[in-house]
Protein 1
Amino acid sequence: MPSTADYSEKIPNNVSLHEDRRLQRALESWQPNFLNWWQTMGPTLPTQDVYLRTAVNVGRDGWAQFGHVAMPEYRWGIFLAERDPGRRIGFGEHKGEPVWDKVPGEYRAELQRLIVIQGDTEPASVEQQRNLGATAPSLYDLRNLFQVNVEEGRHLWAMVYLLHAHFGREGREEAEELLHRNSGSLDAPRILGAFNEETPDWLSFFMFTYFTDRDGKYQLGTLKESAFDALSRTCEFMLKEEAHHMMVGTTGVDRVVQRTVEVMRSRDTDDVAGLGAIPLPVIQKYLNFHYSVSLDLFGGETSTNVANYYTAGLKGRWMEDRRKDDHKLTSDAIMVDALSEDANGEQSIGQTEVSALVGLNTDLRREYISDCQGGVKRWNRILEEAGVKQRLKLPHVAFNRKVGAFAGIEATPDGEKIPAGEWERRQGEWLPTEVDKTYVRSLMQPVHQRGKIAAWIAPPRNGINGQPFDYDYVHLA
Ligand SMILES: [Fe+2]
Ligand SMILES: [Fe+2]
């Protein structure tokens, strides 16, 4: 299989699509529906062209090309990472057997479901972010937004390819549905809660790309381990693109924090609202919100479905091959978060032991949480270097949860269980209030001139692909 894409075809691909006319025709008939979705649900800001990278190769070096592209003419393609001919299943009851080129009948429904859920998040985020272009703080940021958007569109293609190629008529129907559900729609919403929340401002966008896109990274990491080889190779390549999305979030929050401390220091005040910067407590509240809704995406602390997926070889653990155990987990245990109850029926936040297989969601959520700590550390280093005493932190896992063990209780960011009435009174201390959101939105005045940037955010340290910050990243229409 060639690793370089064939760009002479209608749908660029490295899967020798021309050898399977039926599949090629099916995907070519889905293509105009995708483009129609992009035009109606994609970015609303009119542009002539955008400096974008396009994947052209799955190899280690030079996998992408950069150039100014009119977005509707972006070459969304289908790329699988290179095949490892000797690859064997790394975990579960089929451990050691050769990986599957075809979907085994007994796992068909589960695999299709996993692919549909992953696929549903990709276009959802494009929909959530569609109006952000109008308030971009710079052309550099605008370009990054569009890069993330076109690549989430390509990730939709990645999942649709699998549905078309391996799941027959049902797969094709699911591919259609991926374009018909819409983020926030009352009749046909996206499958997962966090993907129906709006992304109304750029602080939300950076928090989303840091926290929520990072959930995607972890889900893809588990699917990359799959015994179904095409799914594994698809996800491996998607992870390469995700790295940039993570960078946009990480450095986006860096730059907001940077600007805030600059204003705090130059005016010698913590109260930067009204001075054109975003106060640290507001940044903390946005962080609290995006982190807690992203934790929900990992599902309940325990799940027999996920245990079965693991045993079957459909979905592994993060960095499965680095784990030092038998990769079957049939006799292992794990402590998971839980509500405990004392003799008087009084509930408290605690932990309980369950079988490792049933606790796999918790394992993945913990990997994610420790990764999230990395960002907080970075942002706190900026505060420390500026000589500011405040610090940001991740709230407790029980805070603001709608899924899992803590869905039925309320807790402070410090993990203290509180009565519902107190939560009602005090949640504005911890989550963005209407006043906070209105203030942040008031700062979102577009800066669409080359080399200029909005006052609430610091410029980036580096441009894209070696270009300077004041490069003409986007030509508006
Ligand atoms: Fe994605
Ligand atoms: Fe992403």
Protein 2
Amino acid sequence: MKNFDLIVVGSGIMGAFHAYHAAKKGKKVLIIEKDNFPVSATVRNFGQAVPSGSAGKWFNYGRRSLEIYKDIQQQFDISVRKNGTIYIASDDTEWQLANELFDIHQRQGYECSLLSKRQCLDLYPELKQDYVRGAIYYPNEVSVEPNLLIYRIIQYLQEQLGVTYLNNTGVINCTDVSGKVVVTAAGSQLYSADKAIICSGYVFNLLFPEIYAQSGMVVSKLQMLQTVPLTNVSIKGNILTGLSIRRYESFEQCPSFKNITTPEHYSELKKWGIHILFKQAIDGSVIIGDSHEYAPVGRTDELGFDTQNHINELMLKEAERIMSFPVRKIARAWAGFYAQHPNDIFEFDVSPNIHIRTGIGGKGMTTSAGYAENMIASLL
Ligand SMILES: Cc1cc2nc3c(=O)[nH]c(=O)nc-3n(C[C@H](O)[C@H](O)[C@H](O)COP(=O)(O)OP(=O)(O)OC[C@H]3O[C@@H](n4cnc5c(N)ncnc54)[C@H](O)[C@@H]3O)c2cc1C
């Protein structure tokens, strides 16, 4: 039986960064992934790393994650681009929240600026004049290419940090045996380690189903669209809009947040958890999303695998209200899923050496690198 210091189950962004920090500490690490390559939330997202959207310790994990992303990027191209983040307010309520968050982030020493309507239109000529009231802008935030990042990180882990990566291998059991953790893969191969960390995303039926059934986690289904390459369009960075201001955790800290009301034209969008984000990929195509539907553990199949036209249409209509480029030149549509816990993350220790860490929700690309650093420091 092959022996390691740490076995990480799952090679999404959470598993990859737990492996990264353990390997940086000189540990002998094995990652086991059930698919040929990760194909779940970690590759189906926008690739926006936006600490500005989080609050409290998650804001700090996000800030630390930016440093880690930038540090790796200097040594190895993992597709990190520092193009900043903008939240575009469309009415007085959203503009008020943007101003209040600006004050909070100024006090916290997090670089940002307020942009007037004119400045927004100069920076993003594709914005529709009627939509824009003003914006808050974060120059140091980054975006990544979700279809590249995780593959490059896995390559980096193997080539530079000596991590062993075993794919096409589903883990079906993980147990303590005489002071060691023994992991069983489908096919009956056994691997042992001093510790195991389970970062299995929203897969609840292969390992510890009884624990997940009691966990309180839900799965969120998000619909996403991507245009054909739009070579004449240049919208840099992470672009978030009015409904994001009304939705993201960071804005909940603002004094006026508790008094905001929902205008009628937002009500159908809110019903489907829609807020509109844009992220231009390297090839010029623009990712547009997203919506949110929820189901508890055990009933996630009911969310379906397909995308609903009604939701796509709502998103495209709102996107057309915001941008003048041809948002309907859609090349691809997909659904992404992530696990989410009411306490922001599901941390459960099955035994002193087997640790479940999943359910990071919609902030995994932003915060996993910093979160995992903290976790590895406390566990190893
Ligand atoms: C549409 C969409 C847009 C998003 N946009 C953003 C964004 O812009 N910014 C942001 O910060 N976050 C975003 N997120 C959230 C982010 O993508 C997730 O928080 C993050 O990817 C979760 O990572 P994970 O490693 O926990 O899970 P996953 O990515 O689901 O990875 C889990 C891995 O574990 C493997 N696995 C599971 N069980 C086993 C087993 N028994 N044996 C072996 N392998 C196993 C799976 O095959 C999978 O590869 C978005 C999510 C979605 C769906």
